[in-house]
Amino acid sequence: MVAFRDDEPVDEVRTEDGMLSQLESFVQKHQFRSGIVGSVRDLTAGEQDALSCLTFPLLRFSADTPIPISNRYRTPETLGSDRLAAVVGASSLKPGKDLLIIDAGTCITYEVIDARGNYWGGNIAPGMQMRLRALHEFTARLPLVDAEGVVPGMGYDTETAIRSGVLRGMKYEIEGYIKSMRSKFPNLQVFLTGGNRINFDEDIKNLVFTDKYIVPRGLNKILDYYESLKNVE
User: Which residues contact 167 (CB under 8 A, 6 or more apart)?
Assistant: First the structure.
């Protein structure tokens, strides 16, 4: 949960108990006039109950929600709300620019929006923990390796071979996407969000903006856009 004032995040709280136990105190603290919910999973009964008790209007973000960009995705009903919100968030910070938005979380997603505001879609790849777990669960003897630790250029034992393979593989993959997309969009700007930190090479590092609030920014902008359309009516 993130609170915004004048398009900027001012506070956040995280809860994983399926009950939104901190929602009431968070709402009382900030006195919201409206809110938006965007989730890539089904809400639990506890979460539904907590949201139903809110006293301000709450927009449920879906494929039918109007957005301030042109969505060219062929199956918008299957598009994750976090992916679309990330695109809206990045384009609100850099309007009129060709953008690549990379979200390195549970999955790594790559989204492209052009300078005219057309979102063309993107790609989805396994995230860091998914890759580490897959090597363990889909093989007979490879151990489950923690992401924290040394990452040599070439592993010198099984643990470092797995960790380096996963982390360096992610790094090379992301850098490859950036270089490929810049060949199509020479003035491309890149946003990186999500919980996984990537140690890019210097020539790539200078091209990347990092912002952990890209998805909340997008949701906030979608809410503003929705309310502006209501006011016109």
Answer: 128, 147, 151
Closest CA to 173 of 98, 80, 85, 102: 102
- Cα 198 from Cα 180, distance rounded (Å): 18
Q: What pTM did the predictor assign?
A: 0.89
Q: Interior CA angle at 25 toward 22 and 12, to 5°?
A: 65
Could you tell me the two tokens for 117? 């505001």
Q: Which two tokens stand for residue 64?
A: 């039918």
Which residue in 126, 121, 111 sits closest to 170, CA to CA? 126
* Domain layout of the chain by residue ranges: 1-60, 67-232
Start-to-end CA span in the chain (Å): 29
From first to last of its 233 residues, the chain has per-residue pLDDT tens of 899 998 899 999 887 666 677 888 888 899 899 999 988 788 888 888 888 888 899 999 999 999 999 999 999 999 999 999 999 999 999 999 999 999 999 999 999 999 999 999 999 999 999 999 999 999 999 999 999 999 999 999 999 999 999 999 999 999 999 999 999 999 999 999 987 777 777 778 777 898 999 999 999 999 999 999 977 65
Kindly name the residue from 6, 17, 82, 203 that is annotated as catalytic: 82
- Catalytic residue status for 82: yes
Query: What's the fold here for domain 67-232?
Result: Nucleotidyltransferase; domain 5 (3.30.420)
Task: Please report which residue ranges of the chain form alpha helices under DSSP H.
Answer: 23-30, 45-52, 81-93, 128-137, 158-184, 202-205, 214-232
What gap in Å lies between CA 88 and CA 68, rounded to an integer?
7
